[in-house]
Amino acid sequence: MLNNKNCKSLGQASSKSEDGFTLVEAVVAIFVMTIGLIGTAAAITYALEFGAISRNVSRAKSVIISTFEEMQTLRNAPHLEFRPITDLGAAMPFGVFSMGFTSVSTK
């Protein structure tokens, strides 16, 4: 095995390719990693936004299903007739339907 001292003595030039990274190579590597990290951050942001949208849609579906179940229960109730189940609002004698807006958010 020849070392640098032996190479010089034999008239061969030492190899400069094994000296390490150049500044240009380091800057390019940092640039490539920065682009990758920006892409990852964008993907995480998109996932968080989509998660919030999905959560809101699920809550809205829950409210709709709850309202349908309330209507079905009132329809099948034996003590109710068609006359009291009308859209009279607050004038209803026993208030079978929930009035006003139903809050979807838990905040």
Which key terms come to mind for this protein?
single chain; 107 residues; mainly alpha; rod-shaped
Regions with little confidence, pLDDT below 50 for 5+ residues:
none
Q: Give the integer mean of the pLDDT values.
A: 76
Radius of gyration: 37 Å
Helix content range: 55-70%
Q: What structural class do you assign from the helix and strand content? A: mainly alpha
Total E-strand runs: 0
Number of helices: 2
Structural shape: rod-shaped
Please report which band the strand proportion falls in: under 5%, 5-15%, 15-25%, 25-35%, 35-45% or over 45%: under 5%
The SSE string, one letter per element, is HH
The termini sit apart by 73 Å
Biggest β-sheet: count, sense, barrel?
none
